[in-house]
Amino acid sequence: MPRVSDDRLAARRREILDGARHCFAEYGYDGATVKRLEEATALSRGAIFHHFKDKEALFLALAREDAERMADVAAQEGLVQVMRDMLARPKDFDWLGTRLEIVRKIRSDPAFAQAWAAHNDDLEAVTLARLQRKREDGSLRKDVPTEVLVTYLDLVLDGLITRLATGQSTDDLHAVLDLVEASVRTGD
Question: Which UniProt keywords are present, listed alphabetically (predicted)?
Fold first, then answer.
């Protein structure tokens, strides 16, 4: 029997993640039934769960991937830029609804909350490191602890995500992000 190449396995895993992301974003965690996951991925239950232990493992893999992607942008360009990208290209962020599901699962599932905490810590760590670099180069205000600024930006991010995921108007959000950015920078 021929073995499946590592490239083919990785491609199949990518197909599953991409289809599942759309399914979770559209239907939420509970509404993303196995049948809907099969339809969204165009793969069988067996093919999906060959790569992921169960639906929760698939959901957590998506959450991790999205957190890592956001952490990469945050590390390079800052968390405010992540938010600007969300406004400019909302179709690239179809995981926004999934982020709301993450919050719901954190509240209702202690095991999921523990698994998620480690990944959230990664995003917070890269944001903190970037802000500390900005403080050292003189472009970040020094009168507020860096950890408080991270919490502040995280709260703004959560509010933006909620607003986008619920379909509220985004007309004034560019100006809001300008205000947020100005509030963390020095007056120089």
Answer: DNA-binding
Place of tokens 């992921």: 52
- In angstroms, rounded to a whole number, what is the distance separating the alpha carbons of residues 116 and 98? 13
Beta-carbon contacts of 135 under 8 Å, excluding residues fewer than 6 positions away, are 141, 142, 146
Neighbours of 106 (CB within 10 A): 16
Residue 30 is which amino acid? D
CA distances from 167 to 152, 160, 163 (A): 23, 11, 6
Q: What is the pLDDT of residues 14-46, one digit of tens each?
A: 999 999 988 988 888 889 999 999 999 999 999
Entry field: residues in the chain: 188
Q: 167 phi and psi, to 5 degrees? A: 75, 20
